[in-house]
Amino acid sequence: MHSQVTLLNKKIAPMRAQLLAHTVYSRINNLEGLKNFVQFHVFAVWDFMSLLKSLQIGLTSVQLPWLPVGTANTRYLINEIVLGEESDVDEQDNRISHFELYLKAMRQMGASTSLIDALMYEIQSGQSIEQAIQKSALPQKVKMFLSYTFEVALHAPLHVKAAVFTFGREDLIPDMFTEILQKIYVNHPHQVSTFKYYIERHIEVDGGHHSQLALEMVAELCGEDATKWEQAATASLKALEMRSLLWDAIMDHKVIDQTAA
To answer: What is the C-alpha separation between 114 and 8, in angstroms, rounded?
Structure first.
């Protein structure tokens, strides 16, 4: 592993540990708790895709006439990740993006998609992302989380985008969460099967193959530039802090039934 990657991981390790130990996971102890979690967590799944596509736009040619951009290696790395995130497979082996798979899981379990649907509607109606976020009925902490993502996606240099994507967003599912999900699945197999598949697929693809590709991408974009690595670390740490705000927003939201089996 690149020495600067190791150093960056050390800098953000305390915040990552804090996130993985966040009390939000104690609220996901039954189906109602899971429903409450996903109606806000879906925004992290969606804006992750926007961050990913901003990287693809910057690292590959998406205009006509086509001209080579950057190195073939970075083009390969980002296109490989996009392929898996934008056109993976569901339980029936049908092509689907991870975001659409998440929505499918939400609908199966009976979780509300009204908040994410409303934001999608505003964007499709021509609102800018900044306007859509501020106009939404989302809690302020969720708005702050989204605003930071799009500040990076729209305005940050490529090495910062790549760092936030790699260190600030991937691989934030603790073992405790998968254990809790397994217990909920035992009691509600027909409502949670798609979400269980999504999480297992996320761990398999995003936490393994994609994480390694993303690390290579950051290392190539930052190179031996100490300033770029420092900027990457600062932005990654802030991204983790914003994720903590998202978790806090879920904790602030009242769960309708905390005792349902």
So the answer is: 38
